[in-house]
Amino acid sequence: MATLREGARMASALGRRQLPLRTVPSCASRFASTQADKPSSPSDALADLDAASSFTTPTPDAKEIEAFNSAEKNQSRNKQLPGNRYQYHPPKYYRGPLHPVQMPASSDPTARDFVPGPFSFPRLKHTYDNTIAPDLMTLTYTHVPPGTVAPESNKGVLREWDESSPYHKNRPRRGPRGGGSSRLGILERDIAWHNIPEIEAVTINSYAPLSGQNKEYLHVARAVVQAISGGFPEVTKVKHGVVQWGVRKGDKAGAKVTLKGGAAYDFVDKLVTLVLPKIKDWEGINASTGDDAGNLAFGLRPAWMAFFPEIEFNYDMYPARLMPGCDIFIKTTGTSDRQARLLMQALGFPFYGKATH
Fold first, then answer.
1. What percentage of the chain has pLDDT greater than the value 70?
2. Chain segment 316-355, per-residue pLDDT in tens
3. Where is the composition biased (Low complexity) (predicted)?
4. What percent of the chain stands above pLDDT 90?
């Protein structure tokens, strides 16, 4: 019964289905080629192609494939000369701008002083580029009319050439007699668009005079400097011994580290924003500090070191009795202490006292 029922269902489905009638146009037989219905061989299909075509080239046999694979293996072998002898090595020393072999730039990965990065842009550096540098150039702008001859301020200190040699022509004046460069000093250049003062390096020095007798002082000093700077410090040693103080030449005296680039700006930003505002009895930087070359320095007491965030959150790790202070030297590109103070004030450092120069 199931079979009969299934057969009846199929018959009714076929009855209801409308099959489309396919009509062939009458002109189809008129345009159809008599050769189209005949089977064509592969040689006839490629007859119209060029004789030099790659379609007519026979397939390679097994011997040719094996020879090709063996040649490819031989070419892929490492036949280069040993790299440690013949590869490029940058020169170890700089021998002047006229030497035929020049050292690559520090941004070149082949350079000896190459340091990868920067991987972040310091916030203080961004503020300097967008706000501080344009303000410094605007505040210190001095208009000089075209054709103005600058006065010679060091005419009595510098000596003229006697013109006894043709090499004296167009040469600058000679230095002071006897090598007294201290009388001349560094000439202060006016601030222009190409020499706006900025931070070049920051040196953190922690002096621990008892490091020669007790190594724990040295360990704590190195740990503190490394924590607040993020760089690996080097151990400093005593250059000159003093018998009255019990200091011998060659004894370990502390640790120091020098920060440059983005690390220097990050450290200065941390000082201005987090550390120095917490010191209630800190008056600021003495205005008379400086070396007449645009470099300023100030110190932090051992009790103030706990205000650094790297030490504050884990203060118990550093023994308070062994905690050292530190001296911070900020090296700028300014050519005088006046320009260095102007930059530091713009960055947020306060000054007190009377500036001597």
1. 76
2. 888 888 999 999 999 999 999 999 999 999 999 999 988 8
3. 39-54
4. 40
Question: Which residues, 6+ apart, have CB-to-CB distance to 236 below 8 Å?
Answer: 205, 207, 252, 253, 254, 255, 256
Radius of gyration of the chain (CA): 42
Task: Decide which of 106 and 76 is more confident.
Answer: 106
Q: By C-alpha distance, which of 157, 160, 159, 156 is closest to 169?
A: 160
Helix (H), strand (E) at residue 299: strand 295-300
Give the pLDDT mean for 250-256: 88
Nearest CA to 104 among 119, 88, 118, 116? 88
Q: Do residues 157 and 176 touch, judged by C-beta distance below 8 A?
A: yes
Residue pLDDT, tens place only, 106-129: 889 989 989 888 788 999 999 999
Listed by start position, the domains of the chain span: 199-352
276 phi and psi, to 5 degrees?
-65, -35
Residue keyed to tokens 């494939």: 65
Provide the 8-state DSSP code for 27. Answer: T
Q: What is the DSSP string of 220-278?
A: HHHHHHHHHH-S--EEEE-SS-BTTTTB-TT-EEEEEEEEETHHHHHHHHHIIIIIGGG
From CA 256, how far away is CA 207, in angstroms rounded? 8
Q: In sequence order, what DSSP letters do the residues of 125-193 get, joined into one string?
A: HHHIIIIIHHHHHHHT-----TTPPPP-TTTTTSB-----SGGGTTPPPB--TTS-HHHH-PPPPPP-T
- Contact between 315 and 249 under an 8 Å Cβ cutoff? The reply is no
Q: What is the CATH number of domain 199-352?
A: 3.30.1440.10
Distance of alpha carbon 275 from its chain centroid, rounded? 26
Check the CA dihedral 179-181-184-188 and report its sign: positive
**pLDDT tens digits, one per residue of 137-158:** 999 888 889 989 877 665 666 7
Rounded CA gap, 198 and 334, in Å? 7
